[in-house]
Design a protein that fits this description.
Structural class: alpha/beta
Radius of gyration: 26 Å
Helix content: 25-40%
Number of strands: 19
Largest sheet: 9 strands, mixed
CATH topology of the largest domain: Rossmann fold
CATH class of the largest domain: Alpha Beta
Length: 448
């Protein structure tokens, strides 16, 4: 009888599976916690929960292993965490980073963990599981760029013409008008869904951007992911990866998605904090090598999906440090993307907004989306601006003599009207069909 009971008990026990495994915090140093007891269950990127002495549950992520211990960083503060605190890993659900995205996210403002920030109640958690670190579409089988995309900004539609699925970088120093240009793009661009990532944003500017720049109509077709500058580096990093995952969800539904990310530089700064805290050596200007390995993995996920899917047209802002457009992040991003728009502080100081330096801006898709007449107009306008730029200092000094060069005289005559063409108010609507007609009038080129 006893043997039967023992065998029965053994059968029952062998059929049980733990719902979680538990370890403890060994030590805390800087932004990292060392976890012991879970090494054989964990891998890079897994998420576990640490219980602080106050009872607060703190989500953390494995960023490395050292001396046989798992190195983790928290998505919140480390107050109340010390040696001996319990760390546990759920086994009943996947521990990798993912969001449960649904159509109900449209019109909502979220944090990088998918939690509502707009005070409008919780979100539908029964949506599609979307991995935060999915691979880009296969380069040999993904679709090609689509038709011309009208962005609603004259300077860009005429001189940095963009196609659906293209990826552009907006390069500028602080205070040159990146956020204002983004608000013009999200209102004027033709798309089904807009996904906006505010990475390391100033806290006071979030409501201003949502209420004043985006507005109720823009918000209704948008998903906004916010991580303010005071949030831990994992949150700032995942503001970018979460926004990309949301954009991929709508892309897979066949929709045309506009992804606006402000800024890639702050994403790289968050990666730098994570890498240095995990013990990675600094390299280029303090950035560890992993930053420049992760950057293309993120940026390449934008663009066309597979045939039959939608496309992600992406605009990434790059905050150039000290107005140095050749600093490491700017240089790396420029080499990955399909074009760049340069915002110049000197142009903004002259009162011309958006402060786009047309001569330094480039779209690599222009040959495939402009007619011969339109390309000729853009080329002539660039030539006019280049000739004027060459004599601008001489004009200010009064050293240029009219009649010396007929082509330069023409550039001086046309430049005021061209400057007016490039100037556009923040809430000034622009119709796509009018852009090149307006440029014809400015240049007096009736043949085009």
């Amino acid at each position: 009888m006893e043997n039967q009971l023992l065998n029965h008990a053994n059968e029952r026990i062998s059929g049980l599976y733990p719902d979680r495994v538990v370890g403890t915090v060994r030590d805390v140093s800087g932004l990292c916690m060392s976890i012991q007891g879970l090494e054989s269950f964990l891998s890079i990127g897994d998420r576990l929960t640490v219980t602080a002495r106050s009872g607060e549950k703190i989500q953390s992520e494995v960023v490395g292993f050292r001396d046989g211990l798992a190195q983790t960083m928290a998505f919140g503060g480390l107050d109340g965490v010390g040696p001996g605190c319990e760390a546990w890993l759920p086994l009943s659900v996947a521990s990798s980073a993912a969001l449960q995205v649904s159509d109900g996210w449209l019109g909502r403002v979220l944090d990088p963990l998918g939690r509502a920030m707009d005070g409008r109640g919780g979100l539908d958690s029964s949506g599609h599981r979307q991995d935060l670190r999915s691979a880009p579409p296969n380069a040999a089988t993904r679709a090609r760029l689509g038709a011309r995309l009208n962005l609603g900004v004259r300077a860009m539609d005429a001189f940095v013409t963009t196609r659906v699925g293209q990826r552009l970088g907006l390069f500028a120093g602080s205070g040159v008008g990146k956020s204002s240009l983004l608000s013009m793009l999200v209102r004027g661009a033709q798309c089904d869904v807009a996904v906006i990532a505010l990475v390391g944003e100033r806290g006071r500017e979030v409501r201003e951007f949502i209420e004043d720049d985006l507005g109720p109509e823009g918000l209704a077709r948008s998903v906004v992911i916010v991580a303010t500058s005071d949030m831990p580096p994992l949150m700032r990093r995942d503001a970018a990866t979460s926004a990309m995952a949301v954009a991929e969800y709508f892309r897979d539904q066949g929709k045309s998605v506009l992804l606006l990310m402000d800024s890639v530089t702050r994403y790289c700064m968050a990666l730098r904090e994570i890498g240095l805290s995990a013990g990675e050596p600094p390299a280029t200007r303090g950035y560890p090598p992993s930053v420049f390995a992760e950057l293309p993995k993120l940026l390449e996920r934008a663009g066309p999906g597979y045939p039959g899917q939608g496309m992600i047209t992406a605009l990434f802002t790059v905050l150039v440090e000290g107005d140095d457009h050749n600093e490491p992040v700017a240089d790396a991003v420029r080499g990955i993307l399909d074009g760049h728009v340069v915002l110049d502080r000197r142009i903004g100081e002259q009162g011309r907004y958006p402060a786009i330096d047309v001569l330094k801006s480039l779209s690599r898709s222009v040959p495939g989306c402009l007619s011969a007449a339109e390309a000729g107009l853009a080329k002539k306008a660039r030539s006019v601006m280049a000739r004027y730029e060459r004599v601008a200092d001489m004009l200010r000094l009064g050293a240029y003599k009219a009649g010396s060069e007929p082509e330069t005289d023409e550039a001086i005559r046309l430049m005021p009207a061209l400057t007016e063409f490039l100037t556009q108010g923040k809430h000034e609507p622009v119709h796509a069909q009018d852009v090149f007609e307006h440029l014809v009038a400015v240049l007096g080129d009736n043949e085009a």
